[in-house]
Automatic annotation (TrEMBL):
Cofactor(s) the protein requires to work: pyridoxal 5'-phosphate
EC assignment: 2.6.1.42
Protein name as it appears in the record: Branched-chain-amino-acid aminotransferase
Modified residues (N6-(pyridoxal phosphate)lysine): 202
InterPro entries, sorted: Aminotrans_IV, Aminotrans_IV_CS, Aminotransferase-like, B_amino_transII, BCAT-like_C, BCAT-like_N, BCAT_family
GO molecular function, one term: L-isoleucine-2-oxoglutarate transaminase activity
Amino acid sequence: MSISSAFRLEPHEAPVAAAERAKRLIDPGFGRVFTDHMAVIRYSDAEGWHDAHIGPRGALPIDPASSVLHYAQEIFEGLKAYRQADGGTALFRPHANARRFRDSARRLAMPELPEALFVESIERLVAADRDWIPEGEEGALYLRPFMFASEVFLGVKPAAEYLYMVIASSVGAYWKGGARPISVWVSRDFTRAAPGGTGAAKCGGNYAASLIAQKEAIGQGCDQVVFLDAAERRWVEELGGMNLFFVHADGSLVTPPLTGTILPGITRDSLLTLARAEGMAVREEPYAIDAWRADAVSGALTEAFACGTAAVVTAIGTVAGADGRFTVGDGGIGPVTQRLHRALAAIQRGQAPDPHGWVHPLGS
């Protein structure tokens, strides 16, 4: 039996009323307004992937001995559905998310969800909750696919049962107050990942390990933390949840390479493609924190920005650390940052041609 043909819909018996939904969508912020439904697929070693359905969003009954609570086998993804200029709806590069989800599962010894099933689960959830996509320039439906070990046992081994789910959240701008340059704190005491670890996987443990450094950054008056490499504490890697780019005065664009310790961001890959299409000189190479400071002070570095699905593209205005603070460029949002952001957003929202085949239409 095809799991796809068995994907069933269980409509919510008491969905949020249209008037209440409209009220929540006026200013949804990020990650706090949730839709009526969720996608669910179960896995067991005995049955494989089964029981695929869209049902009412609700709390999960979970046994206190569930494996995920003790051994942290958990992965997730993040992507968005956008309203299109022609009135339709589309996802942005869902197959890339599906491939990364499978890579993360492989690294954490979890079953690999077929790419087609991953994409279908999202398509069906968006179809059920399309009315939750906010209007406006920043409005989107943020999709959070995730999977965790649900087998009830105490013992250090890969689980034999898993639960895959997708929830959806109506979102506006990621940063309160809209687009603005952020300040970042360079962590010298904590690292995010090491060679051979889980840095390239999108798993909760990576983010949990970053929170103490993020707390330190907030305590220092900064918005985000910058992590350096674990071996030398010299090379810039990424923020707590975003990849980094550096724009030089010679017109080149630099980003740290994918060596297994940073997340292979889909927004990162998209921006590299757009920059190369513009004719920019693009380099994926190590960049030292001392070079960041020296280049910013000399003017050799004119812009720096972070990127990710949630915040899209965010300019970095100031960098602080135990050895002081410096400003990137004039501290504002630079022209290259703005241009790449606009180019990406225009493709995502169907306002510009999509020569790369990134947009995945879902219809009206």
